Structures are given as C-alpha cells and as structure tokens.
Amino acid sequence: MGCASALELAKRGYSVLVAERAHAPGTETTAKSGAIIRAHYGVPELVQMALEANKRFQRFGELFGGDAGWTPCGYAVLVDQNDVSTLKLNIEMHQQLGVEVELLAPDAFGRMAPGVRTNDVALVAWEPNGGYASPAQTVRSFAEGATQHGVQFVFGVPVVGAKKEGEGWQVELGDGTQVSCGQVVICTGNWSRGVGELFGLHLPVRPMRAQIVVVERPASFRGMFPVVSDLINLAYFRADGEGGMWVGSSDSADLQDFQAVPVRHGAVEYDPEADARAISDAKSKAALRFEGVDALDKGGVQRAFCGLYETTPDWQPIIDSLDSVHVAVGFSGHGFKLATVMGEEMACRVEGADSPFPTGIFDLARFDEGRPIASKWKYERAKFLR
Ligand SMILES: Cc1cc2nc3c(=O)[nH]c(=O)nc-3n(C[C@H](O)[C@H](O)[C@H](O)COP(=O)(O)OP(=O)(O)OC[C@H]3O[C@@H](n4cnc5c(N)ncnc54)[C@H](O)[C@@H]3O)c2cc1C
Given a cut of 50, is residue 114 above it in pLDDT? Predict the structure, then answer.
C-alpha cells in the first residue's frame, strides 16, 4: 500500500519520503499474502474497487511499470444447496456492477477444471478474469517506479512520534530525525493502532493469525488451475509454483484458535509457524476437493506458515482523511488486490481531489457511530469471511 501510494504521489509531483521500519519494502503482511484477485464480495463498494483493481492488474506494466506476476487463471466459488440462493443474489449484484461472472453447473465446471471433485457441489460462480499475482514482484515494481519518480525511502527506521506543525505534522523517526510533512499517509497494516495513536487517531486494527499450508500436488495435477473458493469445506486453493497448492481457511470458527497477539510499543509478536492441526485440516480439505491428494500422506507439505490479517471490527478497511493524515489500513485479509487502486485513492486525497472510488462508507467514524459495514447476503458457513 505504501509503495503504491508513494508512486502515485510522486507522479503528481509531490516530494515523498517513505519511512519503513523493516529493511526492505513488502516484507510484512504483503509478503505472506495469497495475492488472490477477485471481485467476489458481499459489499457493493468493495466489489467496485476490487473490479477496478483487477482491471489494473491486467494492465499492470502499462499503468505502473514492471511486472506484478499476474496469473489470470480464473476464480471459482463452489457452494452446496444451502448457499445457492445467496450465491445467485451475490452474482446478480456483481453482474449489475459490471463484473464478468457466470453461474455454472458443477459438471460444466468439472470439465473446465479436471481433477476438481464436484460431487457435493450444487452451483459454481465462475469469474474468468480472477487470478493471483506475486506480492514480491508487485512491491518491487511499485518501489522501483516510485524511486524512478524521485521518492526517497528510509529503511530500518520506524516512525516513533508526531507533533502538529501548522497545517501539517512534524514526524519523528527512530533515529531521532525530525521530518516536516505537509501531509501524512498511514498504511502500516497490522501496526496501525500504535502508529495511529501517534497522530491522535484511534484506529481499531487487530492482528489475527491466519495459517497457510502449501501442499504438494500429485504429478497428474500439475500446471495452472483456477483459484477455488470452497464454501462447502471452508477452504481456498490456488496453484503455488509448479507443484504446490496453497490452502487457506475460510472458516470463521478457526478464528477462535488464533493465538492472542501481544502488542508492545506498536510492535506485534506472533508465532509465524502453522500448527499441526492447521496442517492436517489443510491436507484433509485439499483431499476432499482435489483428486490424487492424499490426506494421510506423511509428507506432502511444502511449507506451512502464519500471516496476520489486519482486521477491523467489521472486517472492512478504514479509508479516511483526518487533519492532514490520510489512512488506508485494516484491509482484513483482502488488501493486496486493492493496492492498484489505493495508491490513486491516497494521491487524490492528498491533492484534495474527489475520490474516483466509492470509499465514503469506509470512514473511521462508522465504528463510533454504530454503522458497521455488512454483506447483505451471507453464506451459511463462511459468514463474514466472504
Ligand atoms: C495469509 C494471508 C493471506 C492473504 N491473502 C490475500 C489475498 O489472497 N488477496 C488479497 O487481496 N489480500 C490478501 N491478504 C491481505 C493482504 O495481504 C493485506 O491486506 C495487504 O498485504 C496489506 O498491505 P499493507 O501494505 O497495508 O500492509 P503491510 O504489508 O503489512 O505493510 C505495512 C508496513 O508498515 C511498516 N510499519 C509498521 N509500523 C511502522 C512504523 N512505526 N514506522 C514505519 N513503518 C512501519 C511495516 O514494517 C510494513 O512493511 C492476505 C493476508 C494474509 C495474512
């Protein structure tokens, strides 16, 4: 988010300094991201932004320079009888908003994606323009573009203080440097609660562990296959390299199992390893959905790790501008795809121009004013996670 915003601001002629606590850009949550790009959401404003973001990934080199590792393999949502009406209502809304998406009978999808078991599936939503990208390539492209446009990066130095200075802010960095800023953009992901406080903002962002397991694909099932969101077994799958399959959970019940995350001086500590149960669940779910995957295989796991979802109370982002501070945080597990639109959104806000995207509903005050955002139609099991 930070590199995309810096690039768009620099293109508009602003002098931009990026202060990054880590020693390189994109090494925190973005590095752990599934980087799946789809428009299937239950909140129309998010659908609109995700659709525009998807279009921009398709033209990434032309718009931003460089390569995002965009893989246009399509995106499928699989439901059983319990969720057929919800899927139909969501797809009708998506089509009205211009998303290219169709409903397929399980057999028809099975022919498109051989090796995917569809015996328990009642209906499939097929988004042919969905897919996934490479977080590392995307960040590198934004960062290189930003550097070429004159952005100055300071690595290994956190923002540790802020004081109002006229209309702008005097920002203190960890090495004691004071920087006068006309305007500030906060895009500090899971660390935003502490960073927001420096600027007098209460940003209710709570880190939550998300466990990912990359299982081996059988030799008969190599190459590209669509991203599959399995709302029956509550898992999502995508190809990972030539022979791997990324398995993530869409089960809200798993949230109870996430470990508490201590937050100290704005820092977050968490166990980056996935646990045995997550690994066994991932293998079982993959075996239920894909032919040739053996849940009982003692090996079969290429890697397993945890990332942190930067969640807000309603699992929707905070996009707002308050007192020369512009905020893009709390993307709650769907922020990677939005970077291609959030850069422009932040640049427009700094410029004082009208936002090109329907971001008004993502204001910070909604939490205090009792206006949480919710999908109109909820899937039976996946609930707010979809
Ligand atoms: C397991 C997992 C899977 C995901 N899958 C998807 C997906 O398929 N599709 C999708 O769209 N999204 C997905 N997401 C969500 C997505 O990855 C995030 O929403 C997105 O990466 C957030 O980007 P960011 O730039 O806001 O945050 P980050 O990448 O975390 O960047 C924030 C930066 O702020 C820096 N920072 C923090 N504090 C300070 C400070 N005081 N001073 C200076 N710098 C500071 C950090 O070092 C960090 O580099 C997933 C997330 C996880 C965890």
Answer: yes
Q: Give the separation between CA 343 and CA 187, rounded to whole angstroms.
A: 10
Average pLDDT, the chain: 93
CA distances to 55, 128, 311 from 204, in Å: 30, 35, 8
* Cβ of 336 below 6 Å from ligand 1: yes
Q: State how far the Cα of 235 lies from the Cα of 230, in Å rounded to an integer.
A: 5
The minimum-distance atom of ligand 1 relative to the CA of 160 is 41
- What is the helix (H) or strand (E) element at residue 154, kind and residue range? strand 152-155
Q: Which residues contact 41 (CB under 8 A, 6 or more apart)?
A: 47, 50, 334, 375, 386
Give the closest residue (by CA) to ligand 1 atom 35: 188
Using a 6 Å cutoff on CB, does residue 191 contact ligand 1?
A: yes
pTM for the complete prediction? 0.95
Token pair in block for residue 323 = 């007192």
Given a cut of 90, whether residue 254 has pLDDT beyond it is: no
Q: Cα of 28 to ligand 1 centre, how many Å? A: 6
- The fold adopted by the segment(s) 1-72+130-205+313-386 is FAD/NAD(P)-binding domain (3.50.50)
